[in-house]
Amino acid sequence: MRKIITTKSKESILSIEDTLAFIECLDLALRNTSTEMLKEIFEKFDLIDHFESGDFLSMSRFVFKRYNNHEEKIQVVKVEHRNTYCVACSFGKKVKAYDIEYKKEDSNISIVYNSSFAINLEIFEGELINYSWCNAFLSKEEMKNILEIK
What we know:
about 150 residues, 4-stranded antiparallel sheet, 4 helices, 4 strands
């Protein structure tokens, strides 16, 4: 007879109610490309000492650097979010991407750029289990092609 071995699932780090509030606050900070807002959120939800927080905040400084470069006269024009899928470490998992349109004033011309970043929130039974950046995810065009195939 085979013995089924079960493993304990990851423990939640926020309750269902706090998870919902955290996601709402996180979305606002990401739309504002603000590491300071992220830090305040982690403090508010007692996650500042969570093992992922340091890496998450450090990466946010790197990701947001291009949007917050005041010396180069960068201005965020539009921020949109969308659902997409991870194509690397959490292959096939739904993640949330943010598409940023920003412009850079250079002499007398304005150049418009587009870029994206994504986050991976692990939620089990409504409770936050983990959070991280997603470094490889499908673009808008790739998602459109997939949805057309279905």
